[in-house]
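The pair is set out directly below:
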Amino acid sequence: MLNDEECKRQALNSLARRPLSEYELGTKLRQKGFAADSVTQTLEYVLRRGYVNDLELARAVFNKCKKSGKYGVSAIRDRMRKRGLTDEVIGAVFSDTAGVDEFGTAVGLVERRFKIVNDDNKAKVMRFLAYRGFAKSTIMKVMEHLYGACFY
């Protein structure tokens, strides 16, 4: 087994490359073969010093996704979950920050991607938005806005 100091060194090297959640760092260290006790001690060490902060990471992920204008709320939450962030942390970020304007984001995406929304491509437009994590109600509103009152 590898020792505690090597575990800390690996953790700090990983954190120097990019911010990681507590879950991601623990998983990475366990995959490298460190003992559970070493991983636990290392996680406590980096948490005490503020090197790992799941709430700040969640805010950064949220802001990056929101700024990109490519994702709906579901997709943003999914990206956060994939980083190992808890629902509690995710909920805190969504309540702390200004929400995502799903309708505006979705309309902008469709207008950039499709020249026109018509009978030939309406299903494709709806799938396009669904794959990017937009709520069904948002997709319906976008379709009504871009296609007309009775698109279905």
In short: The chain is about 70% helix and 0% strand. The first helix runs from residue 4 to 17. The chain has three domains: 4-48, 54-96, 102-147.
